[in-house]
Amino acid sequence: MYKIVKKEALNTTVKLLEIEAPLIAKKAQPGQFIILRTDEEGERIPLTIADYDREKGTVTIIFQEVGKTTKVLGALKVGDKILDFVGPLGRASHLDGYKNAVVIGGGLGSAIAYPQAKKLHEMGTKVTTIAGFRNKELIILEKEMSAVSNQLFVTTDDGSNGNKGFVTDELKKLIDQDASIDLVIAIGPLIMMKFVSQLTKSHGIKTLVSMNPVMIDGTGMCGGCRVTVAGETKFACVDGPDFDGHEIDFDEAMRRQMMYKEQEAESMEQHNC
Ligand code: FES
């Protein structure tokens, strides 16, 4: 059993949990994820590792309450325990050898982009972070991202934080001003990652995206998490979740993402979420 040692609400639907998991904390790297099951009856859900503390032996996860399991998870309190917490899974992000990176987080994707920015910053890479949200109430981790970035731009779709626009608008400005950008990391909704990848492709800038498809076993056995990369089938759980954004079939990934909407809505209804 894995004990919750800290809980924080980052906005009305996004929660942070710090969980005692010393063996995972010892090995975790940015880009990797865990699969958890809250109790015997629970489904297995993958969540990206948002942070880890090797000394304290804890792993931080950040999630949005969008379905039955994340609602159950969000209702747990400090001191409660999670039945299964397995990881670290997936491949760590390859961040070596870059000098000038732009790290982009869209909404909850900022929680996944944050450890990447932090690691790049620790490695001495220049880091510009762009974080986009629908409105200012949804902004998360601004202080944390600022601490690991040479510059930070926070945009909102409705302009309620005084900086109206999409992350791609900010990225375009940066690319126009600075020809030395050698890496872009984009993590967020598929549509955002698609448009970022299109923009960087036209400028020949290496781009990593983090895919978050449906996952079941997390070990490459079930095929649930397949994505098409450079015309080949890959499994996000063992081959990713990071992939070259210029090689992903985003349209197929978006179609697959919609496949279980009906069942998810049914499950929410059954459990009065
Ligand atoms: Fe089953 Fe990846 S989750 S193959």
TrEMBL record:
<keyword id="KW-0274">FAD</keyword>
<dbReference type="InterPro" id="IPR017938">
    <property type="entry name" value="Riboflavin_synthase-like_b-brl"/>
</dbReference>
<keyword id="KW-0560">Oxidoreductase</keyword>
<protein>
    <submittedName>
        <fullName>Sulfide dehydrogenase subunit beta</fullName>
        <ecNumber>1.8.1.19</ecNumber>
    </submittedName>
</protein>
<feature type="binding site">
    <location>
        <position position="222"/>
    </location>
    <ligand>
        <name>[2Fe-2S] cluster</name>
    </ligand>
</feature>
<keyword id="KW-0408">Iron</keyword>
<dbReference type="GO" id="GO:0050660">
    <property type="term" value="F:flavin adenine dinucleotide binding"/>
</dbReference>
<dbReference type="GO" id="GO:0006221">
    <property type="term" value="P:pyrimidine nucleotide biosynthetic process"/>
</dbReference>
<dbReference type="InterPro" id="IPR012165">
    <property type="entry name" value="Cyt_c3_hydrogenase_gsu"/>
</dbReference>
<dbReference type="GO" id="GO:0046872">
    <property type="term" value="F:metal ion binding"/>
</dbReference>
<feature type="binding site">
    <location>
        <position position="225"/>
    </location>
    <ligand>
        <name>[2Fe-2S] cluster</name>
    </ligand>
</feature>
<keyword id="KW-0479">Metal-binding</keyword>
<dbReference type="InterPro" id="IPR039261">
    <property type="entry name" value="FNR_nucleotide-bd"/>
</dbReference>
<dbReference type="GO" id="GO:0051537">
    <property type="term" value="F:2 iron, 2 sulfur cluster binding"/>
</dbReference>
<dbReference type="InterPro" id="IPR008333">
    <property type="entry name" value="Cbr1-like_FAD-bd_dom"/>
</dbReference>
<keyword id="KW-0285">Flavoprotein</keyword>
<feature type="binding site">
    <location>
        <position position="237"/>
    </location>
    <ligand>
        <name>[2Fe-2S] cluster</name>
    </ligand>
</feature>
<dbReference type="InterPro" id="IPR050353">
    <property type="entry name" value="PyrK_electron_transfer"/>
</dbReference>
<dbReference type="InterPro" id="IPR017927">
    <property type="entry name" value="FAD-bd_FR_type"/>
</dbReference>
<keyword id="KW-0411">Iron-sulfur</keyword>
<feature type="domain" description="FAD-binding FR-type">
    <location>
        <begin position="1"/>
        <end position="95"/>
    </location>
</feature>
<keyword id="KW-0001">2Fe-2S</keyword>
<feature type="binding site">
    <location>
        <begin position="62"/>
        <end position="64"/>
    </location>
    <ligand>
        <name>FAD</name>
    </ligand>
</feature>
<dbReference type="Pfam" id="PF00970">
    <property type="entry name" value="FAD_binding_6"/>
</dbReference>
<dbReference type="Pfam" id="PF10418">
    <property type="entry name" value="DHODB_Fe-S_bind"/>
</dbReference>
<dbReference type="InterPro" id="IPR019480">
    <property type="entry name" value="Dihydroorotate_DH_Fe-S-bd"/>
</dbReference>
<dbReference type="GO" id="GO:0016491">
    <property type="term" value="F:oxidoreductase activity"/>
</dbReference>
